[in-house]
Amino acid sequence: MSTPTVVLSGVHSGPNPSPGLGLARSLRSAWPRLRLEAVDYSPRSTGLSASEFDRVHVRPGWHTADLDALCAGLVSIVESAGAVFLPGLDLEAALLADRQPGHPALLLPPSAAFDAVVKPGETAASLLGLAVPEYRFAEGVEDGADFAVRHGWRVWVKGSRYEAVATNGRAELAAAIAGLRATWGGETLLQRHVDGAEESVVFAALDGELLGACAMRKTMVTAEGKTWAGSVDLLDPPSRARLVDLVRVTRWTGGGEVEIVRETDTGIPYLLEVNPRFPAWIHGATLAGVNLPARLVAAATGIPRQEREKAHSTGFVRVVEEIPAGPHAIGVVPTGQHGLSCDGELPGHRCADSPVPAPGGKHPSGMPVLSRRLALPRPRPRPVDLDHRRAADIADALLVDPYESPARVYFGGVLDRGLDRLAGVCRDVEDATGVPTRFAYSAKTNPDPRVLGAVLRRGALVEVISQAEARRCAEAGFPGDRVVLGGPAKWWRFDGGPVKFGAVFCDSVGDLRRTLALVAEGGVYADVLGLRLAPPGVPSRFGVDVTCPRAYRAVADALRGAPVGRLGLQFHHAASQIGLRAWLREFTAAITVAADLLTRADVRARCLDLGGGWPPGLGRAELGAQLVRATRAAVRELGSLDQVLFEPGKYLVEPAMAVFTTVLDVREGRHGRAAVVDASIAELPDWGSHPHPVLWRAPGAPWRRLPPGDESVFGRLCMEHDRPRAGLTLPDGIAEGDHLLFLDAGAYDASMSFRFGV
Ligand SMILES: *Cc1c(COP(=O)(O)O)cnc(C)c1O
């Protein structure tokens, strides 16, 4: 035999292609008369129609077949053709490594190599001298949210086998965890996003010996971040030496790819993942003169190549090409209609094991089904006991039993401890910076009189955004000099005064001019008058972006010679959204330009107001440290200050209220169970952006916390979207008449459902 036969699997060619077609092209350029056979698991795999293949095998989908029989069938295809096999699908390769270990015709890594590269890939990273981005495994949004907040919500949620979804907030995180678990089964991994350029290293090895490698820098990517064009280079000697180690230690056979991102700020290379097969862009390396698939097949079969490696270019681009459909592809029905669906399942099978359909045409090789079949069965999580303090807070709040339901429950103890913590933060900032520091509670976050009363008794200030809120605070007992007025609608229905405020912050240039006029007319008196600065680098509808030259000049003109006693600068953008690091970066950028502006206008800032949006999970030390950093940066730019304010809202009140509900019904659905409760989006309007932790209590039993899972709680309203919580495991014994308590409902859930005047 003068040329080998090669069987390739994974030949789909779509926006996120499998490598089969690229492998075929590379092998053909080494052996023009090579016989090539393609294997895939549904007729929807588009590469099956490619003219490169002499024969195609459409194998049964993963949902139908016995996995051992499928592996044996594949091996018999390879053996009867006297061929070698190159896998293009990670999971199929992992399965074959497990079920057919050491088969000489299967050019894939041994099982131990799969273990070494399993996400997040720490073993492989240490061999390769790469860092691993911070990560955490998460079953549900509760275990993942504080990790994500710490990284400004810029995290990736990765499926157990494939796929990574970028998230940017709590609701997206919850949906990504649920969606990836439903698609791939098993655990989901959260990983910090690393800003930087992506690179790949591709290699081939036989029995632990490296046959060749090269590096690729992505020069164009698709919306999903997949390579569309790249430039190919030699691997530098130190990286090559490390790769030799990885290949030797794992006794690697077959192709592989190491995906790396080099962080822009630090230059540190991080490992994203190691793929146990050639990448889809493999033919790009061949075009650059490094034909790794041919080197592998030649080394494995001993058959010399007919054509030499030749560099056509140092880079490659992808193109889209229409080709005639093969006979198997005729009659393939569009996804989502009749016949085979996109991930290779019959629609009728879907509700049994696939609650979430995969997006159109994304997985024609059926990898999600295989992934779910290979996932270890997970024990059903049980409700978790509460710590003593939580149990005591709830017992104090729910004195009357049976309670009125649904009802908002106020945890006075939680609020008091929060106020203690805030007083501690003020002392810490004062001690560290020497600047007197106080906080102004944001009344709009929860205007409950009990909250306002508790804040008043501590001697703290309130922050309001309308005249109505200001009146409400006055009625609650706040003197005018303990009220901070801000926001874009502060003069709505203003009666002309005269009124007095501790501080007034203007939200736009127009607002500044108008407020200065009101002060000049004597209608408004403010100890501190100032401007809210917009974050220059993140979109915000609030404040003035002084980095914009026109706004800069307008503010400087308005302030020059204005009747301002003490000038203040306010910066507020939710650190709970963008993360503490980005917050400090934005703050510093804004304050630096503002300092320059004030110098030109010949005025000095006296008061700094550091807004709200602090994540409720932050400890005293963390919040204090952040405020200290900001104050020091401000003093450096503005000179000495005589007051620092900050404006906690949800930081204080989110954990201080819950919504008590009664279970009306428990129903079985296609996708698991759901409990219907007597509360709804009327009591929990913020559920969409804030999945609440939920406690459960059967009659006479203690409260327990519901663990993550794939079940839901529905509300009482006849609205499809009245679903206050998904992603939970309901307890086995849950029944009509039991109670559920939605925790952390004291912030915007409270204010959005607040009835003023009642
Ligand atoms: C809303 C608001 C706050 C409080 O925000 P939270 O997200 O509740 O912490 C603080 N300051 C200003 C200016 C606000 O508009």
Automatic annotation (TrEMBL):
<keyword id="KW-0663">Pyridoxal phosphate</keyword>
<dbReference type="GO" id="GO:0046872">
    <property type="term" value="F:metal ion binding"/>
</dbReference>
<dbReference type="InterPro" id="IPR029066">
    <property type="entry name" value="PLP-binding_barrel"/>
</dbReference>
<keyword id="KW-0067">ATP-binding</keyword>
<feature type="modified residue" description="N6-(pyridoxal phosphate)lysine">
    <location>
        <position position="444"/>
    </location>
</feature>
<dbReference type="InterPro" id="IPR000183">
    <property type="entry name" value="Orn/DAP/Arg_de-COase"/>
</dbReference>
<feature type="region of interest" description="Disordered">
    <location>
        <begin position="1"/>
        <end position="21"/>
    </location>
</feature>
<dbReference type="GO" id="GO:0009089">
    <property type="term" value="P:lysine biosynthetic process via diaminopimelate"/>
</dbReference>
<dbReference type="GO" id="GO:0008836">
    <property type="term" value="F:diaminopimelate decarboxylase activity"/>
</dbReference>
<dbReference type="Pfam" id="PF15632">
    <property type="entry name" value="ATPgrasp_Ter"/>
</dbReference>
<dbReference type="InterPro" id="IPR011761">
    <property type="entry name" value="ATP-grasp"/>
</dbReference>
<dbReference type="Pfam" id="PF02784">
    <property type="entry name" value="Orn_Arg_deC_N"/>
</dbReference>
<feature type="active site" description="Proton donor">
    <location>
        <position position="718"/>
    </location>
</feature>
<dbReference type="InterPro" id="IPR009006">
    <property type="entry name" value="Ala_racemase/Decarboxylase_C"/>
</dbReference>
<protein>
    <submittedName>
        <fullName>Diaminopimelate decarboxylase</fullName>
    </submittedName>
</protein>
<dbReference type="GO" id="GO:0005524">
    <property type="term" value="F:ATP binding"/>
</dbReference>
<feature type="domain" description="ATP-grasp">
    <location>
        <begin position="122"/>
        <end position="301"/>
    </location>
</feature>
<dbReference type="InterPro" id="IPR022644">
    <property type="entry name" value="De-COase2_N"/>
</dbReference>
<keyword id="KW-0547">Nucleotide-binding</keyword>
